[in-house]
Design goal:
This protein has one helix at residues 31-45, and strands at 2-9, 12-19, 62-65, 71-74, 77-82, 85-89, 95-99, 111-112, 115-119, 122-130, 135-141, 147-149, 151-155, 161-168, 176-184, 189-198. The protein is mainly β and 203 residues long. The strands form four sheets. Strands 3, 8, 9, 10, 13 and 14 form a six-stranded mixed beta sheet that branches. The chain has a four-stranded antiparallel beta sheet with strand order 4-5-6-7, with no helix packed on it. The N and C termini lie far apart (113 Å). The relative contact order is 0.15. Residues 2-29 and 40-44 have low confidence and may be disordered.
Length: 203
């Protein structure tokens, strides 16, 4: 833009032209453009927020099986469950049965039973747990305090009973002095059988 001021030089009016240059388009950006570039730079350097992952579900301590489904319990032993109770066979093929419907156990409160069979090479322990749908662990404890965690199995639909089994080395007269303890999934004691000398053979 140009502005003009009259000036007198030797009595003659002279119009002087003064050019006032507008800000150059080359160089620093205008205020709006600078703000936009600042916002862009800030956005580019902002790290995305991490997304929290849901915790993995806890593993079920009880294996679910179908009625009559054979479970390999190791060392020649097989276990299976029916609606009437626990069945198992050993290396000799002899079939055993423990009822849950004959009135010999009280399923109105938590409890655990114990049978054993073995020889000089080792002992197979098994039993019922009952009166709870929240069984978490069955442990066998010998006279020296050594603990063996049993495997738990139950029928689909998770009734209020199931079966546990475990192997231990031979000790003393067959089963040795072993206590059996039933815990729920929170680790709370539900029932226990004190240590007792189980003779070799079927319990």
């Amino acid at each position: 833009m140009k502005k003009y001021w009259p000036a007198a030089v030797g009595g003659v009016a002279v119009v002087a032209a003064v050019a006032i240059a507008a800000p150059s388009a080359v160089g620093a950006p205008t205020g709006t453009r600078a703000a936009a570039e600042t916002r862009t730079a800030t956005t580019a350097t902002t790290a995305p927020k991490a997304t929290a992952k849901a915790p993995a579900p806890a593993e079920d301590p009880v294996r679910t099986v179908r009625p009559g489904q054979r479970v390999d319990a190791g060392r020649g032993f097989t276990v299976w469950l029916t609606r009437k109770g626990k069945h198992w066979t050993g290396p000799d093929g002899y079939e055993n049965f423990r009822s849950v419907v004959d009135g010999n156990i009280d399923r109105s409160e938590p409890g655990v039973s114990h049978q054993s069979e073995g020889d000089a090479t080792g002992v197979f322990h098994s039993g019922l747990y009952y009166g709870t749908r929240k069984a978490g662990r069955v442990e066998l404890t010998d006279a020296e305090g050594h603990r063996t965690v049993a495997t738990l199995v139950a029928l689909s639909g998770r009734p209020d009973w199931g079966v546990w089994y475990a192997h231990t080395p031979a000790a003393g007269n067959g089963g040795g002095s072993l206590g059996v303890t039933l815990y729920d999934r929170a680790g709370r004691l539900l029932d226990e059988l004190p240590g007792f000398d189980f003779p070799t053979g079927r319990g």
